[in-house]
């Protein structure tokens, strides 16, 4: 890698929700970051985030799932001569509904954004990552087991979880650490988009967390070199249960509760 002149934090999905919270937290608390790169599709929302932070920022208005993004990001990394100190992959979405009811473009789009987009950003960033840097990948408690009527989203987050844990082992010799963040329901605009005519399971409201608390713990767990960040007692219990109880039994219970 060429000699660098600035240390950056790269955040995908930075225009709202968890990505926006990460940007504000990094701005307040991390003195080791010289510049924040904000990546998302909506320029107006990215401009709002830029106005909320004090560190220098660079806006990339693009969709990580598009082929054109990979070419642009590759050139940008080379031209900016930046060293990545922190990579946070928040870009992603989910749609509630059965696979048969969910539109084809939306179904494939979930996989392209949640899996392919995250992999693209991570793979292109790796040569530019500094020693003792961190990667934070936003997975979900949905990654712990299959979820009928949320099947594609849960499967995509299982990919993120598995990918993150394996990558964490691979990068240890470079002193780079990867954390998969696996929250339960979080109070962001995620569900407004996800519901799309389908109401979420009623019991999820009881476990709803605020985005700041989830992001704060995720950052602390990342700095502590933890491979998993699971916010809240309920989600930690779910994680343990998913390891010891057959999934078919848990899925029957969830199905009953969802009615």
Structure commentary:
By secondary structure, the protein is an alpha/beta fold. Helices cover 47% and strands 17% of the residues. It is built from 9 helices and 7 strands; from the N terminus they run βαβαβαβαβαβααβαα. The chain has helices at 17-29, 43-52, 67-80, 104-125, 151-170, 190-195, 211-223, 233-244, 247-258; strands spanning 6-12, 35-40, 57-61, 82-89, 129-138, 177-181, 228-229. Strands 3-2-1-4-5-6-7 form a 7-stranded parallel sheet, sandwiched between helices. The radius of gyration is 18 Å and the shape is globular. The mean pLDDT is 91.
In short:
The chain is built from 9 helices and 7 strands. The chain has helices spanning 17-29, 43-52, 67-80, 104-125, 151-170, 190-195, 211-223, 233-244, 247-258, and strands spanning 6-12, 35-40, 57-61, 82-89, 129-138, 177-181, 228-229.
Unreliable stretches (pLDDT < 50, length at least 5) are none
User: How many strands in all?
Assistant: 7
Strand content: 15-25%
What is the spatial order of strands in the main beta sheet?
A: 3-2-1-4-5-6-7
Helix content: 40-55%
Structural class: alpha/beta
End-to-end Cα distance, whole Å, is 55 Å
Overall pLDDT, averaged? 91
Our count of helices gives: 9
The sequence of SSEs as H and E is EHEHEHEHEHEHHEHH
SSE topology:
Blueprint: E1 6-12, H1 17-29, E2 35-40, H2 43-52, E3 57-61, H3 67-80, E4 82-89, H4 104-125, E5 129-138, H5 151-170, E6 177-181, H6 190-195, H7 211-223, E7 228-229, H8 233-244, H9 247-258
Parallel strand pairs: 1-2, 1-4, 2-3, 4-5, 5-6, 6-7
Helix pairs in contact: 1-7, 3-4, 4-5
